[in-house]
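Extended Data, record Hydrolase
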Amino acid sequence: MRVAAVQVASTIDSTANRDLVEARLAALPAGLDLVVLPEATMHDFGPVDHDLAAVAEPLDGPFVATLAAQARRLGATVVAGMFEQTDDLPYNTLVALGADGDLRATYRKIHLYDSFGYTESSRLRGGDVEPVVVDVPSADGSSTSVGLMTCYDLRFPELGRALVDAGAELLAVPAAWVAGEHKLHHWRTLLTARAVEDVVPVVAAAQGGERYTGHSLVLDAWGTTLAEGDAGEDAVVTAEIDPADVARAREVNPSLANRRMGQR
């Protein structure tokens, strides 16, 4: 499976963000199977008093339509973050569009970022506590089950384990990981931990620029970094994930099979 994590710096101009997505995805190499963009690609969180309910979109709105068109053009599954319209507080939602442009899955962020002095739950609602896995075909006819998690979810290892128990063979982690003291270290460490403990590759796409940490990453099932971006606004990291390597990692390190606690 050929994967790409596309780092952007979204603004509070949704139209400009759609134009940015089109431009960035147009520059991607051919032959990708999975493209992951950050959390809040549709529209940045903005200042704490910015009304996200006023800018949230339905799942058949212009942002998802843009992703669908790009997924068809690329012939790849595209995953990205948006604020999903409801009759009250919106959801912080990931959408996965298949290579045919159809909406294959939605994941509504479970763990809202009520931490480091911020209260995401005052602006957004949490999703159902249920793992979401989407099947991603590859050009060679194989397919990979991809588990979805968003940003702060990364700090909760039980979600990674629930995704693997639901069949995930790779984790996709869109994020808007706010910059600050210790934050880049936490980002790299937690991504590596999820890869190692769940014996899965991880594709993590982060917002970049001044406000966010950036450093989008792709790791293999051993926790080795295959590619990493910088803190800028326009990094693209690509890698090839070998299913045989994942199988070897699980054979050498059968920790999932050796569990005695929390098995379903």
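Summary. The CA atoms of residues 8 and 20 lie 8 Å apart.
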